Amino acid sequence: MQIVSALFVENFEVRQAPGPSTRIDLTGAMFSMAAPSPVPVTVAPHLVALIFCPPGETGSGVFEVVFRKGIGDAAEQVARNVSPFTVEPGKFTYRLVRGELEFTAYEQVVAHCRVDLEPWHLVPFTLLPPV
């Protein structure tokens, strides 16, 4: 299985379309946000990942997200989420993770995402000073 896309979003909705076919409406895709108040502050952005299972695979996997202050295993871990899932081979599924991230400075956190033990897919998120 592979991650097709992963983004931080404000809103995520699934709807049916003729076919039958599914549509995913993503709004407010972001890589940064202004803090709602001065640090220290906790924010909870939604990370959505779209995952494809090629035909002939089992359709079972584990989606892991590790939020780190930087890139790589040596970077400080600030949060982690692990969730098993199943998807019909030849189809897509999605995983929605709401990370509760505590910030003590205006900085970048990188979501390290993967299915099973495949390579990491990186998604940056930067907390900016309040406006």
Protein described:
- This protein is mostly beta strands and 131 residues long.
- The chain has one domain (2-128): Immunoglobulin-like (Sandwich), CATH 2.60.40.
- It is built from no helices and twelve strands.
- The chain has strands at residues 2-9, 11-17, 21-27, 32-34, 41-43, 46-52, 60-68, 77-86, 92-98, 101-103, 108-115, 121-128.
- It has a five-stranded mixed β-sheet with strand order 4-12-11-7-8, with no helix packed on it.
- Strand 7 and strand 8 (77-86) form a beta hairpin.
CATH topology: Immunoglobulin-like
Q: Total number of helical segments?
A: 0
Low-confidence stretches: none
Which shape, going by the Cα principal axes? flat
β-sheet strand percentage: over 45%
User: How much helix, percentage-wise, in residues?
Assistant: under 10%
What is the mean predicted local confidence, pLDDT? 95
Largest sheet: 5 strands, mixed
Q: From the structure provided, what is the oligomeric state, counting identical versus distinct chains?
A: single chain
CATH class: Mainly Beta
Q: What is the count of β-strands?
A: 12
Describe the secondary structure blueprint for this structure.
Elements (H helix, E strand, L loop, with lengths): L1 E8 L1 E7 L3 E7 L4 E3 L6 E3 L2 E7 L7 E9 L8 E10 L5 E7 L2 E3 L4 E8 L5 E8 L3
